[in-house]
Amino acid sequence: PPNVRFDDVSFAYDPARPILQGLSFEIPAGKTVAVVGPSGAGKSTLARLLYRFYDITGGSIRIAGQDIRQVTQASLRQAIGIVPQDTVLFNDTIAYNIGYGRTEDPGRPGERGASREEIEAAARAAHIHDFVSAQPLGYDTMVGERGLKLSGGEKQRVAIARTLLKNPPILIFDEATSALDSANERAIQAELQSVARGKTTLVIAHRLSTVVDAHEILVLEQGRIVERGPHAVLLEKN
Ligand code: ADP
Ligand code: ADP
To answer: Where does it localize (predicted)?
Structure first.
């Protein structure tokens, strides 16, 4: 996988009010860097800069040495998988929702993009079947508007299966477990950790205690890195 570098990155939604300032860090190829900090610090904004949802106002972001402004949106989207806090699902089957990212058009999966077998394999790997105790949650289960019928944890498993199927070299977990209760949080965290193995990963987390493992942790406050270091060192200080 490629490495990711932020060099002196700044960003503002409104020129009069800088949100992120002087951010420099590297995610080495295949490693995880976590960004923690209070709400409003700019963590989600930072994550969105990496996939060019917003353009930076200063500095540079490079993937494998290439400035992301020189990369097409299509190849950026192919290279980066995102697991958000609250996965919004289509009013369709679980299979469709898993295969969505692989279809060239939001058409039915299997017709273009991923095959039924590939989607089923991803669903199994994300433990979608054995997660639900009451009724069997099958490949063809309709989930309804906003994933109705699925719990928060189940929705995150759909997002994980989608990411497994896409198999991008770079991952972003944006508070991917923040909306879950603590039992689900631990289960999904373990799942995410195994998905991230060998991938270049940016983890956004509200609390340090929810970061399982990282090459480096950055503490962001009011848009600046106020502290950084390995997990153990920061845990000791905070
Ligand atoms: P965090 O993820 O750490 O909670 P955010 O990146 O969501 O922080 O927000 C950082 C700051 O940017 C906050 O002051 C927030 O109000 C502001 N902000 C976030 N999104 C927007 C937006 N789309 N337009 C204007 N301001 C925004
Ligand atoms: P990509 O579609 O290339 O994966 P995006 O940033 O558009 O990149 O989407 C991130 C993730 O969210 C993808 O896994 C994608 O399948 C999924 N996604 C994108 N748009 C929607 C949508 N409107 N509803 C449900 N899922 C979506």
So the answer is: Cell membrane
